[in-house]
Amino acid sequence: MALALSNLFFLLLVLLLPYSTTAQISRNQSLGSSLTTQEKDSYWASPSGDFAFGFQQIGKGGYLLAIWFNKIPEKTIVWSANRDNLVPTGSKVELTKDGQFVLSDPTGKEIWKPPLDRLGVAYAAMLDTGNFVLASQDTVHLWQSFDHPTDTMLPTQKMSLGSKLVARYLEGNYSNGRFQFTLKSDGNLALQTRAYPMEHPYVDYWPRPEEFVGSGFQVVFNKSGSINFIARNGSIVKTISSSPVSTQDFYQRALMEYDGVLRHYIYPKSSSASWPMTWSLFPSSFIPSNLCNFVITEHGGGACGYNSYCRQGDDLRPKCLCPDGYSFIDPDDVLKGCKQNFLSQSCDEAFPESDLFYFKSMLNTDWPGWTDYEYFSGQTEDSCRIPCLGDCFCVAAVYDGQYCWKKKFPLSNGRIDSNFKGTTLIKIRKENSTLKPPTALLKKKDNSTVILIVSVLLSSSVFLNLLFIMAAFLPVFRFKYWKPKALQPYPIMPGMNLRSYTYEELTEATYGFKEELGKGAFAKVYKGVLGFEDRKLIAVKRLNNMVREGDLEFNAEVSAIGRTNHRNLVQLLGFCNEGQHRLLVYEFMSNGSLASFLFGGSRPNWYQRIQIALGTARGLFYLHEECSTQIIDCDIKPQNILLDDSFAARISDFGLAKLLKKDQTRTTTGIRGTKGYVAPEWFRKIPVTVKVDVYSFGILLLELVCVRKHFEAEEQDENLMILADWAYDCYTDRKLDLLVENDEEAIHDLKTVKKYVMIAIWCI
Q: Where does the UniProt annotation place the signal sequence (predicted)?
């Protein structure tokens, strides 16, 4: 009997051995193994099947090469190789015969490859810990995903000095986001805001100085479910989070979330009456406990973006909200902040508009930090309102019972704080107040004048009194009851959505061409208000009296700009062609020119300059490649790049534009443009192409990178006078840091600086 049982056991062992061996071998992926996006259910699993490595489709945007929890329905991703660069269908990851591990797109272009300190990779393996490794024949790990985390930490994983978890951008967007958890090189733990989309950290918002946890060596997520901050001698400096359950019965992960909070999640491995089959949190796992009260930063909008405020919800998660009169810039991405839904207060002293605004009180709400520009002591709430109401730069006032702080735009670090007993007064334009004509104050003055005139003339004849009264009330009557004539499209230019104005209409719209915004060789530009109904601010370009060439310039500008439509071009709204009067009506750009912004004193931040460069490039590409009539601008310079409410670049001033016919790629003309931005071909009497704009853009790009003018006559070192020459020398000498000296954001992003300088040199 015993012999029979022994034989049976041996037979079972023989039958099971090949299966067991095959199953174990299948977990190690040999040289030549690969995965593609077309193989929907193909992945490399860990021996237990708890984790898998392969491609996961993210919406319709493409695929992540990722690691995920494989036994739960959510397939929760814990690591990815290409979070900022999704790959399309047809992409492939391969462990090549020579031991390279490469992710490539359908064309064979390399997208990602892990850095290897030495050669000798023999196989790849997905381990039961969630760690994906590339190993040598003697099982030494030459590379492992645990050393290169994205936003998640798993049990048995360690973070060493310099390591970080970077939050994703949004819940469904896995690219690098705005917050990170890091063990800094000095041995201190920190949660930091990031200068998105660059990698430069702005400021530590956890721990607070009074909660300093000391220096350590590693962050260890141990098998018992505790996340500990460890010193070099192995002692625990601080327990960051401790799970009430074991890793044997629960999947666990620590996640740096897109809202700026580090959270510890647990998920039961099997059904249990006491735990739901989903990712769960416990209150002590939130770091920080209330994000709204922690993020106060000089740079960036705070926890919730500019002009918004943060409130902790009942689920202990931060909620981003807009104050009354504001709405989200992007409802799908609330961290971008909020925008005003009304016209800002005029700074024209003749029409201060103080009576057109009121305040909305917000209790226990504050915008602390760097948007204060004036404060007063010994105030009441009512007296706090008065200085803000009469100040066009003041968008809100904060009153704490004694002090009154005036806040400028944009507001940052907004939050509801139960410990703050003060009130924020948000300044909002009254409903329909924009319908009031801008001549309201003039009407009051005229009425007073009429009363005075009538009283003086009482002794005169009734006839004369009537004449004077009619004469005095006539301007008021015209302003009150006059309405613009029906505006007709320009008859000789069909197909354009332009309006024709009379010279009289534009004279009244600009209050007699009162406020000059700028001037050039051909024209002056004035600020105005288009119509009384919606009070749309406009810029009116008044061309000088010209001979025949002036007419040609005018017609070129109207026909060219009237047919353009792009977010990075200033929109032409209408024109006037009445005898000797030739005027162009543009949308008003509230933030002025790039020249004023760039060289006005305070240095614009690196991210803003990058966005302005990209916007200008998009606008030029549209003019050169996407217009029905190709346009050469001929005068790209900071003075002709305007900035809208969001500081987006808008190319303006086509007064020097040169148009090309459909099949024409070059033209001849007299020298046009501005000294310092003019391409060499202008002086060679050869046909010019769109490359003249490319040259000018190269100079402009260098000015944006370096925040200095293309020529500095007062520079003592003649090698630094001409920006293009200096930039070229710095590039060839590998001293690009000199170009962005004292610009901390740019210095931390020298890779982008190098790219932009290289592009500028190519353009020149």
A: 1-23
Q: How far apart are CA 329 and CA 340, in angstroms?
A: 9
User: How far apart are alpha carbons 44 and 29 in whole angstroms?
Assistant: 8
- Which three-class secondary structure string do you get for 672-720? CCCCCCCCHHHHHCCCECCHHHHHHHHHHHHHHHHCCCCECCCCCCHHH
Choose between 323 and 531: higher pLDDT: 323
Non-local (6+) Cβ contacts of 734 within 8 A are none
635 catalytic per annotation? yes
Judge whether 134 and 141 are in contact, CB under 8 Å: yes
Binding residues: 541
- Phi/psi zone of residue 508: left (φ > 0), alpha (ψ -120 to 50 degrees), beta? alpha
The whole-number pLDDT of residue 436 equals 40
Residue from 71, 67, 68 nearest 269 by CA: 71
Residue 743 · residue 598 · CB < 8 Å = no
**Which of 346-350, 457-461, 503-507, 743-747 has the least mean pLDDT?**
457-461
How many Å apart are CA 519 and CA 449, to the nearest integer? Answer: 36
Q: Which helix (H) or strand (E) holds 42?
A: none
Return binding residues for ATP: 541
| 450 and 442 Cβ atoms separated by less than 8 Å | no
User: In this predicted model, which residue has the larger pLDDT, 593 or 487?
Assistant: 593
One-letter amino acid of 234? G
Residue 486's pLDDT band (boundaries 50, 70, 90)? very low
DSSP 8-state code for residue 11: H
- Rounded to two decimals, the pTM is 0.55
Specify the residue for token string 């060219």: 560
Classify residue 119 by burial, with Cβ atoms within 10 Å: 0-12, 13-18, 19+.
exposed
Indicate whether 283 pLDDT > 60: yes
CA atoms within 13 A on the CB side of 623: 32
What is the total residue count of the chain? 764
Dihedrals φ, ψ of 758, to 5°?
-60, -45
**Catalytic residue, candidates 635, 693, 743, 749:** 635
Closest CA to 127 of 24, 42, 33: 24
DSSP string, 201-227: EEEEEES-GGG-----SEEEE-TTSEE
Residue in 694, 698, 701, 699 with CA at minimum distance from that of residue 711: 699
The helix (H) or strand (E) run that includes residue 751 is helix 750-763
Residues in CB range of 671: below 8 A, 6 or more apart: 678, 682, 683
446, 461 contact by CB (below 8 A): no
pLDDT confidence of 469, banded at 50, 70, 90? very low
Q: Cα–Cα distance between 619 and 567 in angstroms, integer?
A: 8
